[in-house]
Amino acid sequence: MRSAGVSTERHAEPGVRALSVGAAMLCLSVLADSGVEHYRGLFRNRVMVVPLAVSAVGAVGNLLAATVHRGFGRIGQAALALTGASGLGFHAWNILKRPGGLSWRNLFYAAPAGAPAALVLAGVISALARSIDRGSGRAVRRTARFAGGVVSVGIAGTVAEAWLLHFRGAFHNRAMYLPVSIPPLAAASLAVDAIDGKPRPRTALLLGATALMGLGGVGFHAYGVSRNMGGWRNWRQNVLAGPPLPAPPSFTGLAIAGLGILAIMRHRRG
Amino acid sequence: MSADPMQQPRAANGRAPNVMRPGGWVPMCMHDDADEVDFVIVGTGAGGGTLACKLAEHGFSVVAMDAGPYWRPLEDFASDEEHQHKLYWLDDRLVDGDNPLVMGANNSGRSVGGSTVHFAMVSLRFRPEWFRARSTLGYGADWPIDWRDMWRYYEEVERTLRISGPLDYPWGPKRPAYPNRPHPLNASAIALAEATEAMGAKWTATPLATLSAPWGEAHPCVYRGFCVTGCSTNAKQSVLVSWLPRALAAGAEIRDLAMVGRIETDGNGRASGVHYHRDGQWRFQKAKNVVVAGYAIETPRLLLNSANPEFPDGLANRSGLVGRNLMVQSNQAVWGAVEQSVRWYKGPPSLAISEHWNYTDEGKDFHGGYAYMSQGPLPANWATTVAGGRGLWGSDLISEMEEYNHRVGLKIVGEVMPQESNRVTLADEVDQYGLRIPRITFSFCDNDKRLIRHALDFLDQGLERIGARDRWRQEDDTCHLNGTARMGFDPETSVVDADCRSWDIPNLWICDGSVFPTVGGVNPSLTIQAIACRTGDRIRELARRGEL
Question: Cα separation of B272 and B294, whole Å?
């Protein structure tokens, strides 16, 4: 196995670079989000620092892969996926140990059940990017379609988390319906394209809208922070109490990865 | 900030405080005393404030008076327990009976918005059978309202107050999801959950009238714990910030610092208006209808103080029941200490609840039911509780207070039986307005005592099973006030009908907790508001039919 940080001479094709950018964005989103949320939890369990470290490395590695084509190696990818998977376990344990167990209340307020999956996705997408970059012919087409399925499922999972937390907030602002209406269409459309291997303009449009919505979501969440007592003047409390600022860009990361897959499917067509 | 709201009325000159904005105002319709308004409402709490909104929105002209000040929550509510006593009704009253009531904190309020300004926000529906307590459960009295009718109005109130509650309420007939999701539990609530599960019963997050998400201009709850006092963030959905802004927008006039002393009748068996004290003078507001909504002490007091040659025993008192059947709720607790840090002051005090003994009839040696909730008394309140309940003083009290962060407790809201001997009468002494003050007579009956004993035994076992040590029973507390002008099916055995209209005087209405024939084992504010909503709709219907 090659180590992380192997370099090759040529530039990767744009679609592969988009996959790396997507993985990097997911890592950045996890870095900022778990940074804020685990700080809020006072790093009570020392392993709560692990996702910060791993996502930081993952962000840098994938950005390098995207820009100067330094490969982000198998070890890094495995670390991302493993951290994410064990995070899912820790979060599940956090939910189930509370009175009421698997209940709405604990899903709302315990550790977010699905959040660590973003790291798994980052690792898998990063690995797929590498494999597409190095492969050719039918194998690549198959891998690209598989990656389309992964991203589609990833978007669906992110939608589920946004729905859960926006439901917790009683959809008190109509904009809160956006992440549960546009991305599901994008995920479905991407899934269809991945199944029949035909990239459609409609999918690109929906993924583009999802990417923009993810960025705009930061603005909406900033407004959400201002809706708490004291607004932004009381930012030290309200950034923790209000909606998570770094969460929406995970949609952008996945959507960019999805656009990359469409480009690869177009580029490597039979 | 404007002048002292306890000295000078704020709702005047065509405007009233905008409770959502510091220093803000909203326009307010004004009426002359000589204008014969459709409704003058005495009291702006859960009954009167809600009804003022409904009637104004139905197009009636409304003047709602309250003896208390018009607070601006964002400016007037300091985080100081003693300071917040200004929200209580602390005028002189005489209390007697075997269990004289402690008046003030948890049973009365003197504010525009009434005691909902400092209520604990617990918003529970009655068990359906309680509306037919006499015929289905064999005690108390039946209500003349069907529970399905009430269920509709409960939903209206829950929507208006944006109640934060569980998605799956464990007891009673299926109810719609609460508008807002439940709040997170604090450690005190988790203690209730564990104790209740250890006893094999169910528990849930308490439906609370404090926001778990922004609503309108109001912020969500910040869990600062100043909850049985004034909420300075407007997360608490008191009548002051929920119904009354709507009432003003619909054209109601609200008069703060307006103490109504007497209802006038016209010699033909109808009410003609109210005498009220405001700005240092007695005035008279003419009205086509008078609604009394002063809660279970001030309502009978006003009706009795309004006695005149036409109605020598007081108004609406043909049955002799005005002032009778006063019901509090038993509010006993078991307290204990646990090893881990609890910090029960965090968040609303009653985040978790069990209504097990409201809905279970087996295994009881008493009529009625009780709910119990997790607790979070603030330090001064807790010091008072242990000083009084355990007789701690000096260094004992200090070392007890050092354990404050490790205390847990479970407290009931228990049903008491209606008894005619528990009553409000007039004393000979007069208050600062020259009005005779109420004498409040209350004694627990044997059934009440059996309920309390059952509850304390159950709660004590629960706390024991979660390893709480130093447990002790607080046996002396009560909360809430109801009865004293009960609704019923006929003029001989009740004061008002199902529409809260007095049997004796057709344009005199009573709309507050006084009309409850029974209290049930849940906090009454939601039911009072639901009755007010129903009354508002019924009045519109009666007006349509020309039967006002």
Answer: 18
Q: How far apart are CA B419 and CA A174, in angstroms?
A: 52
Query: Does some domain include residue B8?
Result: no
Q: Are B523 and B116 in contact (CB under 8 A)?
A: no
* Residue B364 φ then ψ, to 5°: -115, 145
For B421-468, how does the pLDDT look when each residue is reduced to its tens digit (9 = 90+)? Answer: 999 999 999 999 999 999 999 999 999 999 999 999 999 999 999 999
**Within a domain: residue B1?**
no
The answer to whether B214 contacts A105, with C-beta atoms less than 8 Å apart, is no
DSSP E strands: which ranges in B43-158? Answer: 62-65, 94-96
Domain ranges of chain A: 14-267
- B177 min Cα distance to partner chain A (Å): 11
Q: What is the pairing mode between strands B94-96 and B436-441? A: parallel
β-pairing verdict for B25-27 and B423-430: unpaired
- Residue B257 region by backbone torsions, left for phi larger than 0, else alpha for psi between -120 and 50, else beta: left
Q: How many domains does chain B have?
A: 1
What does pLDDT average to over chain B?
A: 97
Q: Please state the separation of Cα B517 from the chain's center in Å.
A: 15
Give the pLDDT band (50/70/90) at residue A71: confident
Quick check: A90 contacting B, CB < 8 Å? no
Q: Per-residue pLDDT for B240 more than 80?
A: yes
Has residue B3 been placed in a domain?
A: no
Q: Count CB neighbours of B419 within 10 A.
A: 18
| Helices B147-160, B525-544: inter-axial angle, 10-degree rounding | 110
Instruction: Determine the pLDDT at residue A10.
Output: 59
Tokens representing B53 are 């909104």
CB contact under 8 A, B190 and A172: no
CATH number of the domain bearing residue B376: 3.50.50.60
pLDDT (tens digit, 9 = 90+) per residue, A216-269? Answer: 999 999 999 999 999 999 999 999 999 999 999 999 999 999 999 999 999 887
For residue B377, the distance in angstroms to the closest alpha carbon of chain A comes to: 23
Give the chain A residue nearest B193 (alpha carbons).
A99
Alpha-carbon distance of A28 to A248, in angstroms, equals 11
Judged by CB atoms closer than 8 Å, whether chains meet at B193 and A168 is answered as no
**Block residue for tokens 């950045």:** A28
Query: Is residue A99 less than 8 Å (CB to CB) from chain B?
Result: yes
- Name A171's Cβ contacts closer than 8 Å, sequence gap at least 6: A177
- CB-CB contact of A183 with A148 (8 Å): no
The mean per-residue pLDDT over the stretch B406-417 comes to: 98
**Within a domain: B2:** no
Closest Cα in chain B, distance from residue A180 (Å): 18
Whether residue B375 contacts residue B410, with contact meaning beta carbons closer than 8 Å, is answered with yes
Question: What is the percent of chain B where pLDDT is above 70?
Answer: 100
- Residue-range definition of the domain harbouring residue B255: 15-544
Residues in chain A: 270
Determine the pLDDT at residue A3: 42
User: How many C-beta atoms surround the C-beta of residue A60 within 10 A?
Assistant: 16
The one-character DSSP state at A70 is: B
**Predicted pLDDT at A70:** 77
d(CA A231, CA A206): 33
Residues of chain B with Cβ-Cβ distance to A110 below 8 Å are none
